[in-house]
Amino acid sequence: MKILAVNPGSTSTKIAVFEDLRPLFEAGVELTDVRRSAFAAVLDQLEMRCALISRALSEAGFAEDAFDAVVGRGGLLAPMPSGTYLVNDAMKDYLTEAPRGEHASNLGAFIAERFAGRSGCRAYIVDPVSVDELSDVARISGAPEIERGSLVHALNQKAMGRKAAAAFGKRYEDCRFVVAHLGNGASMAADDAETIPGVDSVCGIPDSGIAHAIGYSNASGKPYRRSFVKYTPTWPRSFMPQNQSVRDLIARMKLIPVQTEIEGKRMLFCDDSIVRGTQLKDTVVRLYERGAKAVHMRSACPPLLFGCRFLNFSRSRCELDLAARRAIAKLEKCSDPTDEMIEPYLEFDSEKYRAMVEEIRKSLNLHTLKFQKLEKLIEAIGIDPSKVCTYCWNGRDVDVNTVEFE
């Protein structure tokens, strides 16, 4: 059986041809910013993407009418179990209306149907991003009014799980895996590609930084190492105790240094965020005390400049406790910067943004410091940007009238 597989992403369309399980051809059809910006809506790109796929297949010597099945990546459909689904009119109507948002993966069903029609075969999608197999406990969001929804990279995660099961000589259904999506860390490494510092290892601050560090390591070719082991039979979050000295003690107890991975090493750390920076600063001190030669830091999200209105990152509710806010206050020579003062610092890589990052770097005694770009973070999440709250990074309020509570 000859199969055409199509995976439309935001910046490219990946295609592959298989003879049963044997890959015959793989290619990534890149889309320039200019080419994508010519279309108001994602589905308007259908003809353009199909033409590029046709050209790639033709150049590789494959006839468009010779496939026995065509499969596309599943898009933002209603919550459903994982599996393989036939493309039908109801599915296409839902993707056209896009009640869960526009995303490049929504094109998968339409592209599959277009090429299936040319071969006279069936069109399918597999494991859409709306796969919902969360347990009841996993649906707890922390806010009683909101039930946590499921939007995941199910296609890739389940594929990796099946590969791992095969390597163990077991059936996928008989295994239990922890699968991490590493795209955010990989995109940070891509941004560092031309200026990546000379490091001996890439490390994650347990546990939140581990997936980012593995992704960075894979993309950069720098070895991943565990320089800290997390000891968890203490407080679940180190900011919970009322007393600062107890919080500091809990933070130190939770991170057990691995001396052989620290001494004499130039290390690049990844973590999910830098909030106040207090514990990170203490961690850097501990690393130098144990003989680290250099400590670099990559934050998997932009600088936090506004206090979250829904959850709490720390015991304090004062925005001036945020490391980025303190840096701006010092640069602007004021006690509490206004929103108007902060606005110029929101522009990534502007002169003021770079000055803020440099001030944070110096305060933490890091060799280099970089933050993830907001657009790269949202791209790694893989859902409609209108459904992502970005208030803590840019102070932009969410339009609650556009948010669906399911």
From TrEMBL:
InterPro entries: Aliphatic_acid_kinase_CS (IPR023865), ATPase_NBD (IPR043129), PRTase-like (IPR029057), PRTase_dom (IPR000836). GO terms for molecular function: ATP binding; butyrate kinase activity. Keywords: ATP-binding, Glutamine amidotransferase, Kinase, Nucleotide-binding, Transferase. Its EC number is 2.7.2.7. It is an enzyme of class 2 (transferase). NCBIfam families: PRK03011.1-5. This is Butyrate kinase. It comes from bioreactor metagenome. The gene is buk.
